[in-house]
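WARN no homologs supplied; continuing
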Amino acid sequence: MPPELKIQPLRYVLAIIDEGGFNAAARHLHRSQPALSMAIKELEQRLGQSLFEKSGKAQLTPFGLYCLPRFREFIAQHDRLSRELKAQIDKQAGHLDIAAVPSVASRLMPEILGKFIALYPDLKVSLQDGNAEFVRRQVTSGDADLGVGSVWSRQEGQMEDELDFTPLLRDRVGVVCRTDHPLAERETLDWQELQRQVVIGNGTSRLLEGTEAAPLLEQNAYFVANMISLTAMLEAGVGVTTLPQLAFPKEHPRLRFIPFADPKVEREIGLLRPRKRSLSPAAQAMEAFIVTKLAT
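OK structure emitted
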């Protein structure tokens, strides 16, 4: 078997050469000269060859000359790995992938990520957005370290086995219409008041499933999955839609959000993490940061 090398005696060899002798190296290392000589002797016994000539001077044998650059390379690699591992543990380096539903990605994550990166400037963070099923798939497959999505994904069987869900906040569902719509002045609405309206369905309409407002799903005159297209149709006055409040495009002044009063419909936003896979130190830090910032 090859000899098992310890780092410290190799550092002693480099110090003896770099400092110009055993005594100088001992002073530099804050070790006694006999202790240094004993460590070198044990290393030579382990290697089966002498590193220094018997003259008592810091003169390397041919085998020592062969070993010297390899010792330097070995120690440099060891120290580089130690620094990289410490940086990972201290969340000072690494890459983090997050998936979030679009409303969270656009409304909440910019501020969260800005503050997080200010704390850990050397971390690289990627943010992907998609519907709740996309977020679940990304975290389940390992393509994302963490996800921020809607609770309805928990109803799908795989989530119970593969993902943990930490509730963060509740997002009220309401009606979105143009500001000149007859319903626009209302503070709240009952779902029955939409029965004679042109309702545009979208990807979040399934939040009405299992509620008293579920009949509206059969009333959808259109279905538009893309938020830009949905906003354009609403601004054109084609109809009204239902959206969680976070998804409401409040930057569009011609649109109004009116929460449902009956039934009161909410979606639960939470943090998704893999149940059977450990998080990296960076992901652990991000998980704690998100929970601190968003948990209600």
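The domain at 172-265 is CATH 3.40.190.10 (D-Maltodextrin-Binding Protein; domain 2).
OK
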